[in-house]
Design a protein that fits this description.
The protein is α/β, with parallel strands linked by helices and 362 residues long. 36% of the residues lie in helices and 12% in strands. An eight-stranded parallel barrel has the order 1-2-3-4-5-6-7-8, surrounded by four helices. Helix 5 packs parallel to helix 6, helix 7 packs parallel to helix 9 and helix 9 packs parallel to helix 10. It is globular and about 55 Å long.
Amino acid sequence: MKRLLTALVLCLAATLTAGQPAHAATLRMLGADVSTLQRALDLGARYYDANGNQRDPLDILKGVGVNHVRLRVWNDPISGYNNKAKVLQQARAAKAKGLKLMIDFHYSDTWADPGKQYKPAAWAGHGINQLQTDVYDYTYDVCTSLKAQGTTPDSVQIGNEINTGMLWDDGRVINNNFTNLSLLLKAGYNATKACNGGTQVIIHTALAENLSSARWFYDGIRARGVPWDITGLSYYCMWHGSLSNLSTVIADMRSRYGKDVVIAETAYPFTPDNADSTRNAVTSGCSGYGLTWQGQGAEFAAVQSTARNAGAIGVFYWEPTWYAVPGNGWDPANINGSGNEWDNMAVFNWTGHINPEVRWIP
């Protein structure tokens, strides 16, 4: 009888959890987007650990818990950075340190985010049929090039913060019509799996502040048959609301779609001050967290705790190494002449010393 009851309990548990990702007791993707790091190092930037020792920044990040790096890829940026060749180089450096790799496809020559999703110049005149081929071929090419050098990506994003689509206007969601976007997402997914079946595909939006908007987007692509492996969300408290709300959205996304969730971007300022002539993107913080090293460390810890408790599998800090290095500017069309809008959001200060309060916590 005891064996029968045990078997029934195990069967019931399996039934209840079938198709659902296991509730995460730990964060296994402890990430840092270091897309600007290569440029900083090429310019001679130095990085120091909490003891004041100059070291390789990837070693410093590993020492405080990082196990993944995220690298954006732009098709043909004027700066020559974040293109395929540079990403291949950065991937080798990361994998040599034993770090896992996420590739963030913007499908643009410059920044793609909720407010702008510009086609790369080479695809400017292409309609939706050709764009599907473009996305497939480009995704497959980058992925297989990474694979050929022994740095197969562990995960990829098909688009960056695609709240209302990508490759505008053809891939833009207008009047709740997800048809074209879904065709592009399927092309990226299929290319990734053709390259390497084990690479996880992430669909990434910046919709953590609004559950109804997040459902609208992911319901829309699911209804069109789009496959994906991980739901990616950006969360910045000054733009996306309370940690309580974040917890609700993460838990809902897990339950509603039966897929793991990762916070693909987050960050917090350590100072309200500005290191250069370019204004900062963020100049204020959030209630309960000061604009200090201590405040930055506490807010990042709280985001990780919230994500973990809600069942997410990972949190990525956006550009922790992008401190104020002249010549490593915000504008890829003027990388030498533009300043850094993120110099108060990095976890390294303006002399390259890491915030001793910041940790990535499983």
